[in-house]
From TrEMBL:
Gene: folD
Functional pathway: One-carbon metabolism; tetrahydrofolate interconversion
Name of the protein in its database record: Bifunctional protein FolD
Originating organism: Paludibaculum fermentans
Catalyses which reaction(s): (6R)-5,10-methylene-5,6,7,8-tetrahydrofolate + NADP(+) = (6R)-5,10-methenyltetrahydrofolate + NADPH; (6R)-5,10-methenyltetrahydrofolate + H2O = (6R)-10-formyltetrahydrofolate + H(+)
Entry function: Catalyzes the oxidation of 5,10-methylenetetrahydrofolate to 5,10-methenyltetrahydrofolate and then the hydrolysis of 5,10-methenyltetrahydrofolate to 10-formyltetrahydrofolate.
NCBIfam families: PRK14186.1
Length: 304
């Protein structure tokens, strides 16, 4: 039986550890402050905002939201960032990705003060990551490392395969695993013999954004499988493929009109792996926990 790496439990551990630090900051000066800028409306971003607001409330982190229309220009966004860079009560600035195509994302990331960049996306912080030097780390990959560490899984010396090469997940994930002394392979849409390469992985991280794409032939029996994907499936044939016709799950799909599924086939992953992160209830929750952790750390840094 595979172990489920429960994001809820680990998330709560991390939040509980942050609470005394937040209490200290609040009594010493003020609560940590986080601002999220959301441009347009992307469904994945909406889930993120909702859970982030909930978590800030639970922790007593001051949170603000700036919602801008999807016609926003680069200059307008930069003006908001400039104001936030200068506000002393704000420790973290997060601009939700992806941005509409008329916006110059790189200019936006460069404009955020690196010490308020709680996403770890500023080129300075990316450089610090590559150098294994202290700086805010990208939340999703940092969350994956916390899951591994707190579940007693040490990547040192093992074969790790990361599927996906995005700046947000795949690349920083590979770098963190490398720093943890894994032998890391990064795969992507042009990789030849993808199932074969994945099947060599003792630690398999899927971050591709395709519902249940990694099936049995990609999974090494006994592997640790980390599913970073979050895909909403609304087609009936897809739902049948993913549930393998399970009547109860299909009924739930019919009722809600959609199914939230990762990048790895949930049944194959449960059957073949030694341990895996479920979707939902896995990596996603840790992304929020690490965002809180980065915000608290930034506030502590500013208090010095
Ligand atoms: N600059 C930037 N940084 C991000 O980190 C970022 C972003 N932009 N844009 C959008 C994506 C998406 N994302 C999520 C993280 C956690 C959940 C989450 O809480 N998931 C839970 C709940 C799922 C549910 O409520 O249905 C789970 O997986 O169990 C969702 C979505 C961060 N992103
Ligand atoms: Mg993500």
């Amino acid at each position: 039986m595979a172990r489920i790496l429960d994001g809820k439990v680990i998330n709560q551990q991390i939040l509980d550890e942050l609470k005394p630090r937040i209490a200290h900051l609040t009594s010493a000066r003020r609560a940590p402050g986080l601002v999220v800028i959301l441009v347009g409306n992307d469904p994945a971003s909406e889930i993120y905002v909702r859970n982030k607001v909930k978590t800030c409330l639970e922790l007593g982190v001051h949170s603000e939201e700036i919602r801008l229309p999807d016609t926003t220009t680069t200059a307008e966004l930069l003006a908001h960032i400039e104001t936030l860079n200068q506000r002393p009560a704000i420790d973290g600035i997060l601009v939700q990705m992806p941005l509409p195509k008329q916006v110059d994302s790189r200019a936006v990331l460069l404009a955020i003060r690196p010490d308020k960049d709680v996403d770890g996306f500023h080129p300075f912080n990316v450089g610090q990551l590559v150098a294994n030097a202290p700086a805010p780390r990208s939340c999703t990959p940092a969350g994956v490392m916390e899951i591994l560490r707190r579940s007693g899984i040490d990547p040192a010396g093992s074969d790790a395969v990361v599927v996906g090469r995005s700046d947000i997940v795949g690349k920083p994930m590979a770098m963190l695993l490398l720093h943890a002394h894994a032998t890391v392979t990064i795969c992507h849409s042009k990789t030849q013999n993808l199932p074969e390469v994945c099947k060599r992985a003792q630690i398999l991280v899927a971050a591709i954004g395709r519902p249940a794409m990694l099936t049995a032939e990609y999974i090494r029996p006994g592997a640790v499988v980390i599913d970073v994907g979050m895909n909403r499936v609304s087609s009936r044939p897809e739902a049948e493929r993913i549930t393998r016709g399970d009547a109860e799950k299909l009924a739930r799909f019919e009722k809600r009109g959609s199914l939230l599924v990762g990048d790895v086939h949930p049944l194959d992953m449960a059957e073949l792996s030694e341990a895996y992160t479920p979707v939902p209830g896995g990596v996603g929750l840790l992304t929020i926990a690490m965002l809180m952790s980065n915000t608290v750390q930034s506030a502590e840094h500013r208090l010095k």
